[in-house]
Structures are given as C-alpha cells and as structure tokens.
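Please check the following.

. . .
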Amino acid sequence: MSKKIKAKAPSKAKETAKAPEKAAVPEKRPVGRPSKYRPEFCEQVLEMAAEGKGPAGYAVKFEVDKASLYDWAAAHPDFSIALSRAKTIEQEWWEDKGRTGIFADKFAALVWHKSMAAKFRDDYTERSTTELVGKGGGPVQVETSMIDPRNMTPEQREALKVVMLALKGEAK
C-alpha cells in the first residue's frame, strides 16, 4: 500500500512575516563645496561684456577664480555659449573704442593694439611663417657627393683649395 504525502500548507506565521528590512543607506553627498553657479550668470556675463569686461571681470563679480568659469562652461552648455558670445561682444566693445579713439587727440594706438593682440589673439596677433619647398612645391631634395682629389688635375686641386680656404676664412 502506498502512502500519499500531502504538502503542508504554509503556516500563517510565515505569511505574515515581513521581509527583513534593508539597512538605511545614507544619501551620497557631493564632494567639495557646492557650486556658486546660477543660470542668471549667462545674462550677467553678456551685460558685462557689453561694457568691455572679460573673464577676469566676470570672476570678480561672481566671487570665484577664472578656472571656475571654465568649469561651469564645461558643466553647463548655456554658460559655455554665453561665454563664447561674450567674447565677441567684448571684442566689439574694444574695437569700437579703437574706432572712436583713433580720431581723439590723445589716443594711445600702440597700447590699444597691444591690448587687442593680448585679448583677441586669433584676430590681432601678427604671424609670419617661412616654408622651404623644393622643385614643384615638393620636399627639399638634398644631394651629397664626394670629391676625390686623386681624380683631379693639379689645377682642379688648386681651385678646390682656394674655395675651401675662402669658406674657412683663410683666403690667399
């Protein structure tokens, strides 16, 4: 005779038992001090640029160093765009000062030009380049040849001697 084994029904105590609670995980806090960046800085940068101010002026206004401005630009695309536009606005302000100053009695053109070259290198720095190119615009070809005096006539050897002494600075 075979005996059937019935599965036991779960006890009520197990059904009402709660799952063990997970330990409360503390909220992660950002490292370092909170950023002073505010979205309204975008508009303020443009306003200051319209007065000829640049990154140093913005940093002073926002009470940060200039590196923070560039960190903010990396983290906030709107601020990055504002800085780029501000550079153009600032340049226009300085160019306007040059246009009006050129007709003034006491315009320091050299100082203005040096300032422009320092502030706006891409547009105001004078550059010159020297390129060496060979025949047809290709690379310069260098040829080396050996002179064997044993294969020369006495007159050719004497001429070679004169040339070499002249190059050395000991002409006859």
